């Protein structure tokens, strides 16, 4: 019985450490900012954007309110489909994936640095 308890305790400790590592990795990602790789798959893009959402959502209520936006950002505002001034998690993921699909000029499910640059040019940024 004592051995069993030991094993369970060890398991809990290991699980706890894993969580902390993941949290630290996310904190690091937030600290260096969002740096996209040169070829981004739709899945990776979604995951990066999910992390970005978490970073922006400072009070962790799963909504990005006006005061949580870094600066007036037309693209992010466009995610707010029902125009209530709040971007929900669903609006965010739909909006970011629509944005990805617009950048993915040859529709192969990845966005290269070139496609990204092209998209920036088209949007006049
Ligand atoms: Ca929020
Ligand atoms: Ca909304």
UniProtKB/TrEMBL annotation:
Residues 76-92, 99-115 form the EF-hand domain. Gene3D superfamilies: EF-hand. It comes from Sphingomonas aerolata. InterPro entries: EF-hand-dom_pair, EF_Hand_1_Ca_BS, EF_hand_dom. One of its GO terms (molecular function) is calcium ion binding. This is EF hand domain-containing protein. It comes from the Bacteria. Pfam families: EF-hand_5.
